[in-house]
């Protein structure tokens, strides 16, 4: 009986324990569920609430309705907010590893048969005289004249007498043969003075010589062209602008402000994909027109045809923009050798032709005021072969000085921006170098004697923040220099204009906001790293998702992008207060409008560098992000594809350049 009672009591105790356990487990489940719900709610509200993307300046949308806010920048009156120029390193193991030793170019494997002497007479080369029966050689000349940007007219002169025939036009092709199976041909670019361009002598006016180079930072110029740099600075007394900062992406956003004082989007529409686009010379107030109207003879050209500044994306020129315009020459050679395939034209090096043309132009119009602008692309746009012309460049400068060709000239040797597609751009320093191109200015001695304050200001400004806009005002001062007096160079206009002559004093406290440089392009903003944080990942994913949204209508031909890795992530840290970004200031959405209000707002600039797959595209993107509202502002002007994409977007690039930044054509995977 007692034993039965003990068994029953044990069973009851176990039942009570089971009930207590179930009750405890039920209460625990409720508590855990409540806690989990709270965590999920909190995470939704403050961590993973979807990021809302506002788009600005997207090409194709001519009337963007989005008004966005932005961060940039701190109190103008604070001395700490002036631009602190970064100290770029000339050499590091990482940078030096990207500069392979260059072998000298040899163009003699196919020797020329004829050449043009100093009197423009065709002569047989030494090779032809020794190896050919010149009595059996027949040569024809084909002159090439510009008709439109992409077409030419030709004049044929057959069986010209070698040793007597005088060339009459800058651009021509010579074809020679001794038989059906022994032929030779090559295009020529040779300066020929045109009497109709000879203007009345104006010795009091300053000549302007502008030699541009694509994709070369201030320190890269020193690395790749040390002989040229040394001669420019130490022998010619050129002044290097150490704080010269770009204001946009690519060559047009350097040259348009420099030559018009405005941005592309402040000017009438010229983008050729639009039916209503204008020719650039019809609507752009190029400053070389002012020089031409003042009696200058002008020369302009670039050493590429396919991707020329005003013809690749823009509609180009209706009429030849200068008295001497060399585009037809490079159109002709690209039909034969292709774009950027060779640096030899016949048995001549391209840069020797280039420098020879400048020398002959300056000598040929010795008694006429001159404006020359030539831009070189082939040696530095996609690679690093610039060093191949260093000795020749330095020699050209030395010989020009000895011949006194630049005696009355303001000489500018400069670059449009730093490297964008080379291995250097992938380094930690590369993004700064892209934003700080080389720019040097050499003033003639007579000018320095007449206006010593102008030279002193230029030297002072070499350590201050400058932009392409400033070159427009500088060129304007050069054009009217003889009418200026010393006191003109002592004053500082107030309020400060966007474009300031570098012959006048640029204020020490000038910063990117005052100079109209947006955060994405500013080399003097204080950033701190957020690499490895959840925020960096969220922002990168949101941006890539938006890239895919841009390609939604092209999903049949363009691959979907996925975030591969984040290389850099930085956040802008303002000092005191921030300005209000009011949105796009023009109908096409390229211009950012900033308010002068000191009102603090919650949008902060973030700059990310990341890669996507397939094909490992690398992007640098600057966005504005409001952590309270989870709104992210993505501006098309602040998206840079920083490694070479080649023909990956071939299926779309000619139809939509903007989407081509993100498209990897499926047939290239």
Automatic annotation (TrEMBL):
Segments crossing the lipid bilayer: none
Pfam families attached to this UniProt entry: DUF229 (PF02995)
Stored SUPFAM superfamilies: Alkaline phosphatase-like
Gene Ontology CC terms: extracellular space
PANTHER family: FI08016P-RELATED
UniProt name for this protein: DUF229 domain-containing protein
Organism of derivation: Panagrellus redivivus
The organism's taxonomic lineage, starting at the top: Eukaryota, Metazoa, Ecdysozoa, Nematoda, Chromadorea
């Amino acid at each position: 009986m007692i034993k039965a009672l003990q068994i029953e009591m044990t069973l009851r105790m176990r039942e009570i324990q089971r009930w207590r356990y179930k009750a405890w487990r039920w209460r625990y489940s409720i508590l855990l569920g409540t806690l989990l719900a709270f965590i999920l709610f909190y995470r939704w509200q403050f961590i993973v609430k979807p990021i809302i993307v506002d788009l600005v300046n997207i090409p194709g949308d001519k009337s963007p309705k989005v008004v966005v806010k932005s961060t940039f920048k701190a109190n103008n009156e604070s001395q700490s907010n002036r631009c602190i120029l970064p100290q770029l390193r000339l050499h590091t193991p990482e940078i030096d590893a990207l500069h392979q030793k260059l072998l000298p170019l040899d163009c003699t494997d196919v020797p020329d048969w004829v050449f043009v002497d100093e009197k423009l007479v065709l002569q047989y080369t030494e090779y032809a005289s020794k190896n050919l029966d010149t009595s059996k050689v027949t040569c024809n000349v084909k002159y090439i004249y510009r008709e439109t940007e992409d077409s030419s007219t030709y004049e044929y002169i057959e069986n010209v007498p070698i040793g007597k025939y005088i060339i009459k036009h800058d651009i021509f092709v010579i074809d020679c043969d001794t038989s059906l199976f022994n032929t030779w041909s090559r295009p020529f670019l040779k300066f020929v003075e045109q009497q109709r361009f000879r203007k009345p002598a104006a010795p009091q006016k300053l000549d302007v010589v502008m030699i541009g180079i694509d994709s070369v930072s201030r320190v890269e110029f020193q690395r790749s062209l040390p002989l040229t740099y040394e001669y420019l600075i130490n022998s010619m007394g050129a002044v290097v602008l150490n704080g010269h900062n770009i204001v946009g992406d690519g060559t047009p956003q350097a040259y348009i402000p420099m030559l018009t004082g405005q941005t592309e989007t402040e000017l009438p529409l010229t983008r050729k994909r639009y039916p209503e686009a204008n020719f650039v010379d019809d609507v752009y107030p190029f400053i070389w027109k002012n020089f031409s109207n003042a009696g200058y003879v002008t020369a302009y050209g670039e050493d590429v045809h396919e991707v020329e500044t005003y013809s690749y994306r823009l509609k180009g020129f209706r009429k030849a923009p200068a008295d001497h315009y060399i585009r037809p020459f490079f159109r002709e050679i690209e039909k034969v050798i292709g774009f950027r395939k060779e640096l030899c034209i016949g048995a001549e090096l391209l840069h020797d032709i280039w420098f020879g043309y400048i020398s002959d132009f300056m000598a040929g119009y010795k008694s006429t005021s001159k404006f020359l602008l030539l831009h070189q692309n082939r040696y530095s746009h996609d690679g690093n072969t610039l060093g191949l012309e260093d000795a020749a460049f330095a020699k050209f400068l030395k010989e020009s000085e000895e011949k006194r060709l630049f005696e009355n000239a303001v000489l500018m040797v400069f670059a449009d921006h730093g490297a964008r597609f080379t291995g250097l751009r992938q380094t930690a320093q590369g993004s700064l170098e892209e934003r700080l191109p080389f720019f040097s200015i050499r003033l003639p001695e007579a000018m320095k004697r007449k206006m010593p304050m102008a030279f002193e200001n230029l030297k002072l400004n070499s350590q201050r923040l400058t932009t392409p806009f400033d070159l427009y005002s500088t060129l304007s001062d050069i054009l009217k220099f003889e009418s200026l007096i010393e006191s003109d160079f002592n004053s500082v206009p107030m309020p400060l204009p966007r474009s300031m002559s570098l012959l006048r004093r640029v204020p020490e406290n000038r910063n990117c906001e005052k100079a109209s440089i947006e955060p994405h392009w500013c080399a003097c903003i204080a950033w701190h790293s957020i690499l490895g944080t959840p925020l960096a990942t969220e922002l990168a994913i949101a941006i890539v998702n938006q890239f895919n949204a841009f390609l939604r209508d092209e999903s049949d031909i363009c691959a979907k992008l996925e975030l591969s890795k984040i290389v850099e992530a930085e956040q802008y840290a303002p000092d005191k207060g921030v300005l209000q970004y009011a949105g796009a200031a023009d109908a096409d959405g390229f211009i950012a409008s900033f308010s002068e209000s000191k009102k603090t707002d919650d949008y902060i600039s973030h700059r990310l560098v990341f890669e996507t797959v397939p094909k490992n595209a690398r992007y640098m993107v600057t966005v504005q992000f409001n952590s309270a509202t989870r709104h992210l502002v993505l501006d098309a002007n602040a998206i840079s594809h920083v490694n070479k994409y080649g023909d990956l977007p071939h299926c779309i690039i000619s139809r939509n350049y903007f989407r081509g930044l993100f498209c990897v054509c499926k047939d290239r995977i």
